[in-house]
Amino acid sequence: MRRRSFLKKSSAVAGASAAAVSFPHVVTAKPKFKVKMATTWLKNAPGFGTGANYLAKKIEELSGRRIRVKVYGDKEIVPALQVFDAVQRGTVDMGHGVSYYWQGKIASAPFFAAIPFGFTASEMNAWLEFGGGHDLWKEVYDPFGVIPFSAGNTGVQMGGWFNKPIETVKDFKGLKIRMPGLGGKVLSQLNAAVVTLPGSEIFQALKGGTIDATEWVGPYNDLASGFYKAAKFYYWPGWHEPGANLEFLVNKKFYNSLPKDLQQVVQVAAKAANNRMISEYLSRNAPALNTLVTKHKVQLKKFPDPVLKKLKNVSKEVVADAAKKDKLSQKVYQSMMKFEKDILSWQKVSEIAYGKSRI
Ligand code: CA
Q: Where are the chain's structural domains?
Protein backbone atom coordinates (compact mmCIF):
# COMPACT_ATOMS: atom_id res chain seq x y z
CA MET A 1 0.00 0.00 0.00
CA ARG A 2 2.74 2.40 0.98
CA ARG A 3 4.67 1.66 -2.16
CA ARG A 4 1.62 2.12 -4.36
CA SER A 5 0.76 5.36 -2.66
CA PHE A 6 4.34 6.59 -3.15
CA LEU A 7 4.25 5.68 -6.84
CA LYS A 8 0.95 7.45 -7.29
CA LYS A 9 2.26 10.59 -5.61
CA SER A 10 5.52 10.68 -7.51
CA SER A 11 3.86 10.16 -10.86
CA ALA A 12 1.39 12.93 -10.05
CA VAL A 13 4.29 15.24 -9.23
CA ALA A 14 6.15 14.23 -12.38
CA GLY A 15 3.01 14.80 -14.42
CA ALA A 16 2.47 18.24 -12.95
CA SER A 17 6.03 19.35 -13.50
CA ALA A 18 6.02 17.94 -17.04
CA ALA A 19 2.91 19.96 -17.82
CA ALA A 20 4.54 23.08 -16.45
CA VAL A 21 7.77 22.75 -18.41
CA SER A 22 6.73 21.05 -21.67
CA PHE A 23 5.90 24.17 -23.68
CA PRO A 24 7.00 27.15 -21.60
CA HIS A 25 7.09 29.42 -24.68
CA VAL A 26 3.37 28.86 -25.26
CA VAL A 27 2.59 30.36 -21.88
CA THR A 28 5.19 33.05 -21.56
CA ALA A 29 6.10 34.31 -25.08
CA LYS A 30 4.87 37.76 -25.95
CA PRO A 31 3.36 38.01 -29.41
CA LYS A 32 5.83 39.43 -31.92
CA PHE A 33 3.07 40.30 -34.35
CA LYS A 34 -0.31 41.64 -33.28
CA VAL A 35 -2.60 41.85 -36.27
CA LYS A 36 -6.18 42.65 -37.11
CA MET A 37 -8.31 40.57 -39.44
CA ALA A 38 -11.24 42.46 -40.97
CA THR A 39 -13.98 40.23 -42.36
CA THR A 40 -16.95 40.70 -44.65
CA TRP A 41 -19.16 38.73 -42.24
CA LEU A 42 -21.16 39.49 -39.17
CA LYS A 43 -19.02 38.51 -36.19
CA ASN A 44 -19.37 34.78 -35.43
CA ALA A 45 -21.74 34.16 -38.37
CA PRO A 46 -22.13 30.38 -38.79
CA GLY A 47 -19.62 28.88 -41.20
CA PHE A 48 -17.67 31.80 -42.57
CA GLY A 49 -17.59 33.94 -39.40
CA THR A 50 -16.69 30.98 -37.22
CA GLY A 51 -14.31 29.90 -40.02
CA ALA A 52 -12.46 33.22 -39.76
CA ASN A 53 -12.26 32.74 -35.97
CA TYR A 54 -10.85 29.24 -36.49
CA LEU A 55 -8.28 30.55 -38.96
CA ALA A 56 -7.12 33.24 -36.48
CA LYS A 57 -6.93 30.67 -33.67
CA LYS A 58 -4.93 28.23 -35.83
CA ILE A 59 -2.44 30.95 -36.76
CA GLU A 60 -1.98 31.76 -33.07
CA GLU A 61 -1.60 28.12 -32.03
CA LEU A 62 0.69 27.05 -34.88
CA SER A 63 2.89 30.10 -34.34
CA GLY A 64 3.19 29.37 -30.60
CA ARG A 65 1.35 32.67 -30.16
CA ARG A 66 4.10 34.65 -31.82
CA ILE A 67 1.29 35.97 -34.03
CA ARG A 68 -1.83 37.25 -32.28
CA VAL A 69 -4.86 37.80 -34.50
CA LYS A 70 -7.98 39.75 -33.55
CA VAL A 71 -11.00 39.16 -35.78
CA TYR A 72 -13.43 41.97 -36.62
CA GLY A 73 -16.89 41.62 -38.16
CA ASP A 74 -18.60 43.70 -40.82
CA LYS A 75 -18.44 47.44 -39.95
CA GLU A 76 -16.33 46.93 -36.82
CA ILE A 77 -13.32 48.40 -38.64
CA VAL A 78 -14.58 48.78 -42.20
CA PRO A 79 -17.81 47.80 -43.97
CA ALA A 80 -17.80 44.39 -45.67
CA LEU A 81 -17.30 45.74 -49.17
CA GLN A 82 -14.15 47.68 -48.13
CA VAL A 83 -12.21 44.79 -46.61
CA PHE A 84 -9.96 44.38 -49.65
CA ASP A 85 -9.11 48.11 -49.62
CA ALA A 86 -8.31 47.96 -45.90
CA VAL A 87 -5.84 45.10 -46.46
CA GLN A 88 -4.38 46.91 -49.48
CA ARG A 89 -3.83 50.13 -47.48
CA GLY A 90 -2.48 48.25 -44.46
CA THR A 91 -5.30 49.50 -42.21
CA VAL A 92 -5.46 45.81 -41.33
CA ASP A 93 -2.89 43.13 -42.14
CA MET A 94 -5.43 40.39 -42.77
CA GLY A 95 -8.89 40.00 -44.24
CA HIS A 96 -11.43 37.22 -44.73
CA GLY A 97 -14.10 37.49 -47.39
CA VAL A 98 -15.04 36.45 -50.88
CA SER A 99 -13.49 37.79 -54.07
CA TYR A 100 -16.64 38.63 -56.05
CA TYR A 101 -17.22 41.54 -53.67
CA TRP A 102 -14.29 43.27 -55.45
CA GLN A 103 -15.54 42.81 -59.00
CA GLY A 104 -16.01 46.57 -59.45
CA LYS A 105 -12.32 47.07 -58.68
CA ILE A 106 -10.79 43.92 -60.20
CA ALA A 107 -12.52 42.48 -63.26
CA SER A 108 -11.17 38.95 -62.82
CA ALA A 109 -11.90 38.76 -59.07
CA PRO A 110 -15.22 36.83 -59.31
CA PHE A 111 -13.51 33.93 -61.07
CA PHE A 112 -11.75 33.09 -57.80
CA ALA A 113 -15.00 32.90 -55.82
CA ALA A 114 -17.52 31.06 -57.95
CA ILE A 115 -18.82 31.29 -61.46
CA PRO A 116 -22.31 30.20 -62.49
CA PHE A 117 -22.31 26.54 -63.55
CA GLY A 118 -18.60 26.46 -62.70
CA PHE A 119 -16.42 24.46 -60.35
CA THR A 120 -17.55 22.61 -57.23
CA ALA A 121 -15.47 23.01 -54.05
CA SER A 122 -13.20 20.07 -54.77
CA GLU A 123 -12.75 21.15 -58.41
CA MET A 124 -11.91 24.71 -57.35
CA ASN A 125 -9.31 23.45 -54.89
CA ALA A 126 -7.84 21.17 -57.54
CA TRP A 127 -7.61 24.03 -60.05
CA LEU A 128 -6.02 26.36 -57.49
CA GLU A 129 -3.49 23.82 -56.32
CA PHE A 130 -2.73 21.77 -59.43
CA GLY A 131 -4.12 23.78 -62.34
CA GLY A 132 -2.20 27.03 -61.86
CA GLY A 133 -5.19 28.83 -60.31
CA HIS A 134 -3.49 30.02 -57.14
CA ASP A 135 -0.56 31.47 -59.09
CA LEU A 136 -3.01 33.40 -61.28
CA TRP A 137 -4.90 34.61 -58.22
CA LYS A 138 -1.67 35.91 -56.69
CA GLU A 139 -0.82 37.59 -59.98
CA VAL A 140 -4.22 39.33 -60.03
CA TYR A 141 -3.89 40.71 -56.47
CA ASP A 142 -0.17 41.49 -56.66
CA PRO A 143 -0.53 45.04 -58.04
CA PHE A 144 -2.57 45.83 -54.90
CA GLY A 145 0.04 44.45 -52.51
CA VAL A 146 -2.33 41.72 -51.31
CA ILE A 147 -1.71 37.95 -51.18
CA PRO A 148 -4.74 35.63 -51.35
CA PHE A 149 -5.23 32.15 -49.93
CA SER A 150 -8.28 29.87 -49.95
CA ALA A 151 -9.74 29.69 -46.46
CA GLY A 152 -13.10 28.03 -46.72
CA ASN A 153 -15.74 26.90 -49.14
CA THR A 154 -19.48 26.75 -48.68
CA GLY A 155 -20.00 23.88 -51.10
CA VAL A 156 -23.01 24.04 -53.43
CA GLN A 157 -25.32 26.83 -52.34
CA MET A 158 -29.07 27.16 -52.60
CA GLY A 159 -30.80 29.01 -55.45
CA GLY A 160 -32.36 31.47 -53.02
CA TRP A 161 -35.51 32.74 -51.33
CA PHE A 162 -38.41 34.02 -53.40
CA ASN A 163 -41.73 35.61 -52.55
CA LYS A 164 -43.33 34.12 -55.65
CA PRO A 165 -42.68 30.90 -57.53
CA ILE A 166 -40.36 30.84 -60.52
CA GLU A 167 -42.12 28.86 -63.22
CA THR A 168 -40.56 30.27 -66.38
CA VAL A 169 -37.63 32.59 -67.10
CA LYS A 170 -40.19 35.38 -67.58
CA ASP A 171 -40.72 35.35 -63.83
CA PHE A 172 -37.27 36.93 -63.41
CA LYS A 173 -38.42 40.04 -65.28
CA GLY A 174 -38.52 43.00 -62.91
CA LEU A 175 -37.69 40.81 -59.94
CA LYS A 176 -35.72 42.76 -57.35
CA ILE A 177 -33.15 40.23 -56.22
CA ARG A 178 -29.96 40.31 -54.21
CA MET A 179 -27.31 38.31 -56.01
CA PRO A 180 -23.64 39.32 -56.16
CA GLY A 181 -21.04 38.20 -58.69
CA LEU A 182 -21.58 36.84 -62.16
CA GLY A 183 -24.82 35.10 -61.15
CA GLY A 184 -26.29 38.56 -60.66
CA LYS A 185 -25.17 39.51 -64.16
CA VAL A 186 -26.94 36.45 -65.56
CA LEU A 187 -30.21 37.51 -63.92
CA SER A 188 -29.71 41.06 -65.20
CA GLN A 189 -29.66 39.57 -68.71
CA LEU A 190 -33.08 38.11 -67.89
CA ASN A 191 -34.23 41.60 -66.91
CA ALA A 192 -34.16 41.15 -63.14
CA ALA A 193 -33.31 44.21 -61.02
CA VAL A 194 -30.18 42.92 -59.31
CA VAL A 195 -28.58 44.42 -56.21
CA THR A 196 -25.50 43.53 -54.18
CA LEU A 197 -26.01 43.76 -50.44
CA PRO A 198 -23.73 42.40 -47.71
CA GLY A 199 -25.23 39.66 -45.53
CA SER A 200 -26.01 42.02 -42.67
CA GLU A 201 -28.51 44.01 -44.77
CA ILE A 202 -30.43 41.28 -46.58
CA PHE A 203 -33.07 40.31 -44.04
CA GLN A 204 -34.41 43.83 -43.56
CA ALA A 205 -34.44 44.45 -47.31
CA LEU A 206 -36.41 41.23 -47.92
CA LYS A 207 -38.76 41.71 -45.01
CA GLY A 208 -39.39 45.36 -45.87
CA GLY A 209 -40.01 44.63 -49.57
CA THR A 210 -36.98 46.55 -50.91
CA ILE A 211 -36.13 43.26 -52.60
CA ASP A 212 -38.42 40.38 -53.67
CA ALA A 213 -35.85 37.65 -53.53
CA THR A 214 -32.33 36.88 -52.37
CA GLU A 215 -29.70 34.28 -52.57
CA TRP A 216 -27.47 33.93 -49.55
CA VAL A 217 -25.72 30.61 -48.87
CA GLY A 218 -27.50 27.42 -47.89
CA PRO A 219 -29.68 26.04 -45.09
CA TYR A 220 -27.05 26.39 -42.33
CA ASN A 221 -26.67 30.14 -42.82
CA ASP A 222 -30.12 30.84 -44.17
CA LEU A 223 -31.85 29.31 -41.14
CA ALA A 224 -29.70 31.41 -38.82
CA SER A 225 -30.50 34.55 -40.84
CA GLY A 226 -34.23 33.91 -40.49
CA PHE A 227 -35.07 34.35 -44.19
CA TYR A 228 -37.97 31.92 -43.78
CA LYS A 229 -39.73 34.74 -41.91
CA ALA A 230 -39.56 36.95 -45.00
CA ALA A 231 -40.03 34.60 -47.99
CA LYS A 232 -41.60 31.16 -48.34
CA PHE A 233 -40.17 29.61 -51.52
CA TYR A 234 -36.70 28.14 -51.18
CA TYR A 235 -35.19 27.14 -54.52
CA TRP A 236 -32.47 24.70 -55.47
CA PRO A 237 -29.87 24.22 -56.84
CA GLY A 238 -27.46 27.14 -56.37
CA TRP A 239 -26.49 27.23 -60.05
CA HIS A 240 -24.84 30.61 -59.52
CA GLU A 241 -22.49 29.43 -56.74
CA PRO A 242 -21.71 25.74 -57.02
CA GLY A 243 -18.91 26.18 -54.49
CA ALA A 244 -17.97 29.61 -53.17
CA ASN A 245 -14.25 29.75 -52.47
CA LEU A 246 -13.70 32.08 -49.52
CA GLU A 247 -10.48 34.01 -49.31
CA PHE A 248 -7.94 34.93 -46.71
CA LEU A 249 -6.18 38.16 -47.63
CA VAL A 250 -2.77 39.08 -46.29
CA ASN A 251 -1.05 42.42 -46.76
CA LYS A 252 2.06 41.61 -48.81
CA LYS A 253 4.42 43.89 -46.85
CA PHE A 254 3.26 42.29 -43.62
CA TYR A 255 3.64 38.78 -45.08
CA ASN A 256 7.16 39.54 -46.30
CA SER A 257 8.07 40.88 -42.85
CA LEU A 258 7.32 37.46 -41.33
CA PRO A 259 10.12 34.93 -40.86
CA LYS A 260 9.85 31.94 -43.22
CA ASP A 261 8.42 29.60 -40.59
CA LEU A 262 5.58 32.02 -39.79
CA GLN A 263 4.85 32.42 -43.49
CA GLN A 264 4.39 28.64 -43.53
CA VAL A 265 2.12 28.92 -40.49
CA VAL A 266 -0.09 31.39 -42.36
CA GLN A 267 -0.29 29.07 -45.38
CA VAL A 268 -0.96 25.90 -43.41
CA ALA A 269 -3.56 27.55 -41.16
CA ALA A 270 -5.42 28.68 -44.28
CA LYS A 271 -5.43 25.13 -45.64
CA ALA A 272 -6.73 23.79 -42.33
CA ALA A 273 -9.49 26.40 -42.28
CA ASN A 274 -10.37 25.60 -45.90
CA ASN A 275 -10.78 21.89 -45.21
CA ARG A 276 -12.66 22.38 -42.00
CA MET A 277 -15.26 24.70 -43.46
CA ILE A 278 -16.17 22.30 -46.28
CA SER A 279 -16.87 19.59 -43.69
CA GLU A 280 -18.74 22.02 -41.46
CA TYR A 281 -21.13 23.05 -44.25
CA LEU A 282 -21.75 19.49 -45.33
CA SER A 283 -22.59 18.37 -41.81
CA ARG A 284 -24.68 21.41 -40.81
CA ASN A 285 -26.71 22.00 -43.98
CA ALA A 286 -28.70 18.78 -43.79
CA PRO A 287 -30.24 19.22 -40.31
CA ALA A 288 -30.86 22.92 -41.03
CA LEU A 289 -32.73 22.05 -44.23
CA ASN A 290 -34.84 19.57 -42.28
CA THR A 291 -35.70 22.25 -39.70
CA LEU A 292 -36.65 24.75 -42.40
CA VAL A 293 -39.01 22.30 -44.09
CA THR A 294 -40.54 20.53 -41.11
CA LYS A 295 -40.61 23.25 -38.46
CA HIS A 296 -40.88 26.45 -40.49
CA LYS A 297 -42.93 24.97 -43.35
CA VAL A 298 -40.69 26.38 -46.03
CA GLN A 299 -41.64 25.29 -49.57
CA LEU A 300 -38.62 23.61 -51.08
CA LYS A 301 -38.64 23.90 -54.87
CA LYS A 302 -36.40 22.97 -57.75
CA PHE A 303 -35.96 25.44 -60.59
CA PRO A 304 -37.80 23.90 -63.57
CA ASP A 305 -35.43 22.22 -66.06
CA PRO A 306 -36.12 24.70 -68.89
CA VAL A 307 -35.29 27.56 -66.47
CA LEU A 308 -32.01 25.88 -65.48
CA LYS A 309 -31.19 25.26 -69.13
CA LYS A 310 -31.71 28.93 -69.98
CA LEU A 311 -29.71 30.02 -66.93
CA LYS A 312 -26.88 27.73 -68.03
CA ASN A 313 -26.82 29.07 -71.58
CA VAL A 314 -26.90 32.71 -70.44
CA SER A 315 -24.23 31.91 -67.83
CA LYS A 316 -21.83 30.64 -70.48
CA GLU A 317 -22.22 33.94 -72.38
CA VAL A 318 -21.95 36.13 -69.28
CA VAL A 319 -18.83 34.35 -68.03
CA ALA A 320 -17.19 34.54 -71.49
CA ASP A 321 -18.09 38.26 -71.68
CA ALA A 322 -16.72 38.95 -68.20
CA ALA A 323 -13.46 37.41 -69.33
CA LYS A 324 -13.14 39.98 -72.12
CA LYS A 325 -12.74 42.88 -69.71
CA ASP A 326 -8.96 42.69 -69.53
CA LYS A 327 -6.04 40.43 -70.45
CA LEU A 328 -5.73 38.95 -66.99
CA SER A 329 -9.42 38.00 -66.93
CA GLN A 330 -8.97 36.27 -70.26
CA LYS A 331 -5.96 34.38 -68.94
CA VAL A 332 -7.84 33.27 -65.81
CA TYR A 333 -10.91 32.26 -67.80
CA GLN A 334 -8.90 30.24 -70.30
CA SER A 335 -7.05 28.48 -67.52
CA MET A 336 -10.35 27.57 -65.83
CA MET A 337 -11.97 26.39 -69.02
CA LYS A 338 -8.99 24.24 -69.94
CA PHE A 339 -8.91 22.69 -66.48
CA GLU A 340 -12.64 22.01 -66.60
CA LYS A 341 -12.30 20.33 -69.97
CA ASP A 342 -9.40 18.22 -68.69
CA ILE A 343 -11.20 17.00 -65.59
CA LEU A 344 -14.74 16.60 -66.95
CA SER A 345 -14.05 13.34 -68.77
CA TRP A 346 -13.02 11.90 -65.40
CA GLN A 347 -15.72 13.66 -63.37
CA LYS A 348 -18.41 12.29 -65.67
CA VAL A 349 -17.51 8.73 -64.77
CA SER A 350 -16.75 9.45 -61.09
CA GLU A 351 -18.33 12.23 -58.95
CA ILE A 352 -21.07 13.17 -61.39
CA ALA A 353 -22.03 9.60 -62.30
CA TYR A 354 -21.88 8.41 -58.74
CA GLY A 355 -23.97 11.38 -57.53
CA LYS A 356 -26.66 10.55 -60.08
CA SER A 357 -26.63 6.88 -59.07
CA ARG A 358 -27.47 7.75 -55.47
CA ILE A 359 -30.82 9.43 -56.10
CA1 CA B 1 -24.14 33.19 -52.07
A: 33-153+243-283
